[in-house]
Known about the structure:
The protein is α+β, with helices and mostly antiparallel strands. It is built from two helices and eight strands; from the N terminus they run H-H-E-E-E-E-E-E-E-E. The strands form two sheets. Strands 1-3-6-5 form a four-stranded antiparallel β-sheet, with no helix packed on it. A four-stranded mixed β-sheet has the order 2-8-7-4, with no helix packed on it.
Amino acid sequence: MKKIFVLGGMAAALLISACGGEESKEEKSNTTSGESTGGKKLVAKENVPYEDPNKNLTNIRFDEVVHDFGTVPAVSENKHIFKFTNTGNVPLVVKDAKASCGCTIPKKPEKPIPPGEEGELEVIFKPKPGQEGTTVNKTVTVTANIPGGSTIVKITADVAKAM
């Protein structure tokens, strides 16, 4: 009986010492030395100037964002120029202009547009077979250094039936 009591006491002592409320030396050194418990050192950067993530962004204002060609012949080439102004403080760079369909062909400006200056986006609409007798609505997505990264202009046309 005495042996059981002694063995039970030793087991209890082992459990208490193993589950003590203190951190291990490694954990203490990690948390007090500025390291996370994951072992990665956290370092504060000093004297790093704030860099505005929008400093290279500008704004674009189109004179119109929708152009209606009206009624166009089924076999025709219809051109419109969307005029716009760079209303920001840095040059406007039109990176891309993509049409929603192959019947619409945009031509973007190749050179940056300085602040306060105007630019042009040429859009050509050529009806395709099957569009006769319908109203066609197409979009051109203009990708540039503007907030949100892109803007959209639209064209619409009533394609006459072929005679």
